[in-house]
Each structure stands twice: as C-alpha cells, then as structure tokens.
C-alpha cells in the first residue's frame, strides 16, 4: 500500500483529512481494487486520492471552488483519475450505484444524503463519515439506525505528532463512524 504524508498534498484553506485519520478511514471503508467510491465533501481530495491509489473508481463531490481546484491539482500530482462533481450533495450526484461512500462534509444535508444512499449505495455497501461535533455524530448514528444499517462502529481518535523541537502537537479529536447497508 502506498500512503501519502500530509505535507505532500497541495493545500489551501480547505480542510483536509489528516494522515492518521485518512489511513484509518480507508481501512474502515475496506477499499479494494474495483470498488466505486463516492467521496462527499471531498475538500482537498485526500480521501479520494488514497482510495484511487487502492484501486477504486472515485467520484468526488465538492461545492467550494478552491476545493475543486485542489482536487484537480492533487489528482494530477498523484496521477490518479478522479471524477469531480461540482456542487452540493445529494442534488449534484449522478444516479449511479456505489459500493463505498465517505462523508467528509454534508453541508447540513445528512438526511437527504441518506435518502440518496438508500437508492444508490449497493447492498452490503459501506458508508463511513468523520465528524468533529457530537451533534453530527449523533445524527449520523441515528440515521444509520433509521435506515437499518448493520455492523455500526464508532471511534473517537486523537492523534498527536512530535515537532522538530520535541513538543507534541495534537490534532483535533475526530469521530469515525461506519455502517454497512443491509
């Protein structure tokens, strides 16, 4: 497996899923050759690019112009093909089947996204999301239960990295949640 360090990505003012969280997210999604991954709220494209490097066909949804440009630049840099959907989920997403879905940003439309997934996420498909707030975490878990997902897992992950002068610099704690569609 090839994993990309954070400093290798072209960055801007758009949030990016950090290395440790990104690696764990890809593992929770169980990305394999031939998967079709939908990355909602793709930001810089870090999850999309790591998914493509694992062999997935990737569709990245992003509404921010800066994010769209960063996804284009990063996909060129890492020589992967990412199908970029400019707009807000779920309204802008094409009506095609996916077997893996990552939600990095929902724009307050989690329920609408789950309505979309009900039709277009394949049976036994995996949805995974990362949150920084309890409110969004709770809403996501409630939606997983409402839509009868199985194998629901939730984690709180706190990472820190040692600086060049020997101090630990902590990242925000992140909730990672996964469910499998029945």
TrEMBL record:
Q: Which domain of life is it from?
A: Bacteria
Q: Which UniProt keywords apply?
A: Cobalamin biosynthesis, Methyltransferase, S-adenosyl-L-methionine, Transferase
List the transmembrane segments: none
Give the SUPFAM superfamilies listed for this entry.
Answer: S-adenosyl-L-methionine-dependent methyltransferases
Extract the InterPro entries matched here: Cbl_synth_MTase_CbiT, Cobalamin_biosynth_MTase, Methyltranfer_dom, SAM-dependent_MTases_sf
Question: Record keywords: Cell membrane included?
Answer: no
Q: In which pathway does it act?
A: Cofactor biosynthesis; adenosylcobalamin biosynthesis
| GO terms of biological process kind | cobalamin biosynthetic process; methylation
Methyltransferase domain location: 32-138
Annotated coiled-coil positions are none
What is the designated name of this protein? Precorrin-6Y C5,15-methyltransferase (Decarboxylating) subunit CbiT
Phylogenetic classification of the source organism: Bacteria, Bacillati, Bacillota, Tissierellia, Tissierellales
